[in-house]
Amino acid sequence: MHLPEGPARTLTWAILITAVGNGLYLAGVVLFLTRAVGLTGTSVGIGLSIAGLLGLGAGPAVGHLADRIGPRTIYLVTLTAEALATAALALVHDFGAFVVVATVVSIAEQGSRAVRGALIAQVGGRGRAHLRGYLRAVTNIGVAVGAAGAGLAIQHDTYTAYLALILADAVSFLLAALVIARIPPCPPVRGVDDGRGIRRGRLDIPYLGVTGVYGLLSLQYPVLAVVLPLWIVTHTTAPAWLVSPLLLTNTLLVVCLQIRAGHRVESIADGVTITRHAAVLLAGGCVLFCASAAGPPIVACLLLVVAVIVHTLGEIGQAAGEFELSFNLAPDHAQGRYQGIFGMGTGICVAAAPALLSVLCIDWGQPGWILLGGVLLGAGLAVGPAARWAQRTSAHLVDA
């Protein structure tokens, strides 16, 4: 992995810093809230779900501000907001306060995500989809490092140790803001106030169609983190310790292959093709997960390893196609708003996925895996028609 040059390199360092902080946060926040604050696991799950849903609408609104003022300036604001909101978790002592603070965290996070997409579009230029793929690999590295570091604090199992994880994440946002401040201000792209762009940002039905299709494909993201551990311990003869190396395999493959996959996507047509192939792989992974419920432990282990590899290759391909289409089917003068819309659409599906997939794959078992595979395959096949519809109705598009 070679660092990009100029502002893209600065952005890379900032995202790596926040990724390490997020790794600390993800590994420790639930334990902080349950073991240090005293909330129940169920209440934490409910609170995070409420906060996640309430925060989804922030993306388009904050993205619109980025289009009007400039993404670099607004990103500094959202990073600062994330730092303050995350630090405020230290003041939480009951469920009500937790929901309020978690909602503010979610709003700031969704806003940052939309603005970050707009900043990537400006900094990356024509190579913005490649840059986003590179940053996804960097993010995986950072999260893995942060999660590993969190293990040291978790071993102490004290209020101070868990609080340190939360505050370290807050500090990471401030450090990232200092790094982002080194990027020259990015002026708004001309055309942001032309009326047509505002109307299309709200009512671009073809773009919303593409967003919906990728939202369905995004149901696959919680499969490894949420469904796989439960599946292994409740439906297979494989040992529970296999979960950790399987998740590590996923991370390593994304780090090693995401950039290479992105370089294969040079146009919307390429994005459609790689997404279609990814859907086939994701459906195949579902079949393999389904098959792992039968047979002795060694067979179950082998099937699970192959399933995770196949699933991860599909995940990588989907991400590469998603980056290409989400950027290049959006007008340059409204990237912030469109990235916010895209993130909100996929975010809704990701938020609903844990509950939905738990019913499909854990409660229903093998038939649920087959149904999920069919949904993913159907969504992949629908990307082509959806993208062509968006191209036909988007006068701003320059087809690569």
TrEMBL record:
<feature type="transmembrane region" description="Helical">
    <location>
        <begin position="45"/>
        <end position="63"/>
    </location>
</feature>
<feature type="transmembrane region" description="Helical">
    <location>
        <begin position="238"/>
        <end position="257"/>
    </location>
</feature>
<dbReference type="GO" id="GO:0022857">
    <property type="term" value="F:transmembrane transporter activity"/>
</dbReference>
<protein>
    <submittedName>
        <fullName>MFS transporter</fullName>
    </submittedName>
</protein>
<dbReference type="InterPro" id="IPR011701">
    <property type="entry name" value="MFS"/>
</dbReference>
<keyword id="KW-1003">Cell membrane</keyword>
<keyword id="KW-0472">Membrane</keyword>
<feature type="transmembrane region" description="Helical">
    <location>
        <begin position="83"/>
        <end position="108"/>
    </location>
</feature>
<keyword id="KW-0812">Transmembrane</keyword>
<keyword id="KW-0813">Transport</keyword>
<dbReference type="InterPro" id="IPR050171">
    <property type="entry name" value="MFS_Transporters"/>
</dbReference>
<feature type="transmembrane region" description="Helical">
    <location>
        <begin position="369"/>
        <end position="390"/>
    </location>
</feature>
<feature type="transmembrane region" description="Helical">
    <location>
        <begin position="134"/>
        <end position="154"/>
    </location>
</feature>
<feature type="transmembrane region" description="Helical">
    <location>
        <begin position="160"/>
        <end position="184"/>
    </location>
</feature>
<dbReference type="InterPro" id="IPR036259">
    <property type="entry name" value="MFS_trans_sf"/>
</dbReference>
<dbReference type="GO" id="GO:0005886">
    <property type="term" value="C:plasma membrane"/>
</dbReference>
<feature type="transmembrane region" description="Helical">
    <location>
        <begin position="12"/>
        <end position="33"/>
    </location>
</feature>
<keyword id="KW-1133">Transmembrane helix</keyword>
<feature type="transmembrane region" description="Helical">
    <location>
        <begin position="205"/>
        <end position="232"/>
    </location>
</feature>
<feature type="transmembrane region" description="Helical">
    <location>
        <begin position="278"/>
        <end position="310"/>
    </location>
</feature>
<dbReference type="Pfam" id="PF07690">
    <property type="entry name" value="MFS_1"/>
</dbReference>
<feature type="transmembrane region" description="Helical">
    <location>
        <begin position="341"/>
        <end position="362"/>
    </location>
</feature>
